[in-house]
Specification:
This protein is of the alpha+beta class. It has a single domain, classed as Aminopeptidase, CATH 3.40.630. Helix content is 33%, strand content 28%. Strands 1-2-3-4-5-7-6 form a seven-stranded mixed beta sheet. The radius of gyration is 18 Å and the shape is globular. Bound molecules: coenzyme A. Coenzyme A (COA) binds next to strand 4, helix 3, strand 5 and helix 4.
């Protein structure tokens, strides 16, 4: 039977008895972030990390993710791109930036892959930020996905779209200089959360 997020234990970064050392999502940068950086990142108020653990073994981490505030800077987008990303924005005055949440470091332990937990987390975070209890405005969910076709398609299946199909446009938006910054290895993707809000109002 498929594992459901709602049946797992919710544990914020810093909870006692989290066995992060045994966590392995098969992407070393994510494993390492959870092991070595998540606490410092959180202490600096840069982002918060959460884990889901097994009820029968509460120290065992099944999946984790980090969330941080983010923005889409509309002034740095071409008109067509601005119109595409903001196609559902009906506010009369254009905003300089669209408030967003960045979902980063999404990882599911290799023992629990195949349960669509990553998709469940994407939906969970999206729902969280459109809920009435959210304390600030948040219009878009953003991920900065590794530029690998299968991963990009994975996020597309999970209702996220690429900001830019053209990498050079993305580099311009991000002020990315290959000589200084190296190869751009990730791509920005977004999901307009207003669609989710409208769906939940209709239900
Ligand atoms: C990406 C990730 C979170 C997805 O977790 P998940 O949704 O629980 O994944 P599942 O194993 O249930 O797979 C869901 C589907 O997507 C596919 N899929 C997931 N990740 C994939 C990847 N990296 N490449 C190819 N296919 C992938 C699976 O084949 C599966 O297909 P199906 O729906 O036809 O069965 C997980 O694979 C992971 O932890 N990857 C390593 C960390 C990482 O790269 N995070 C992304 C940072 S941007």
């Amino acid at each position: 039977m498929e594992l459901l997020l709602k049946d797992l234990l919710w544990k914020p970064q810093g909870s006692p008895e989290l066995d992060i050392v045994s966590f392995d999502c098969e992407r070393e940068s994510v494993n390492e972030f959870f092991r070595e950086e998540a606490q410092g990142y959180q202490d600096e108020l840069f982002g918060k990390t959460y884990y889901f653990c097994l009820p029968q073994n509460p120290s065992s981490v099944v999946a984790g993710f980090t969330v941080a505030n983010a923005s889409i800077f509309t002034k740095h987008l071409s008109r067509t791109r601005r119109e595409k990303i903001g196609s559902e924005v009906h506010h009369q005055k254009g905003l300089i930036n669209y408030p967003s949440v960045l979902l980063a470091q999404l990882g599911v332990d290799r023992r629990y892959k195949g349960n669509h937990l990553g998709s469940q987390i994407i939906d969970f975070v999206s729902t969280w930020f459109v809920s009435q209890s959210n304390k600030s405005g948040c219009r878009y969910l953003i991920v900065d996905a590794y530029d690998e076709p299968e991963l990009i398609q994975y996020y597309q299946r999970n209702k996220l779209q690429l900001f830019f199909s053209d990498k050079s446009q993305e580099m311009k938006y991000r002020n990315w200089n290959e000589d200084k910054d190296g190869q751009l290895e990730t791509r920005l993707m977004y999901r307009d959360l207003i669609l989710l809000r409208r769906m939940s109002i209709r239900q």
